[in-house]
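lol so apparently i was supposed to do this last week
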Amino acid sequence: MPKPHLVDLQILRDTAGFIGVVEGQELLPFDVKRFYFIGDVLPGAVRGSHAHKTLDQLIIAVSGSVTIELDDGREVEEFTLAGPSSGLVVPPGYWRTLRDFAAHTVVGVLASATYDETDYIRDYDDFLEWAHGR
Ligand code: T46
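anyway here it is w/ dTDP-4-keto-6-deoxyglucose bound
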């Protein structure tokens, strides 16, 4: 089963700011069908709390920082994204919890499929049953 991992992103900085680039098979081991972004997260708020059965993602804290907890039903691993110089590749099958958003954080997500609610598992007990039956 593919594992979540951090990847370094290309940041081209000059006196007028920076441009971040995401390209290539190592950073994006899937075809991108959708880009979405998350912002205005209130202090203490938690997002995620679900798993995807088939969706691949690359998650980037374009601005600010966030902690992402990934649970495969057996082990839990925690990643912190602090700024745009790294991204988190998340394969299908991980229960994710996004928390500890710094003020004004914007999280961008490149995803392998268009939105499909039937790809979500939103109940943790259902997730454990699904994960242990894989
Ligand atoms: C993930 C984290 C990082 C849509 O209508 N279209 C979309 O493309 C998305 C992503 C969501 N929605 C609707 C579905 C829900 O009614 O927006 C509402 C909130 O969606 P969701 O529960 O997916 O939001 P998050 O921020 O908890 O999670 C999202 C991604 O779904 C998830 O895969 O990893 O961002």
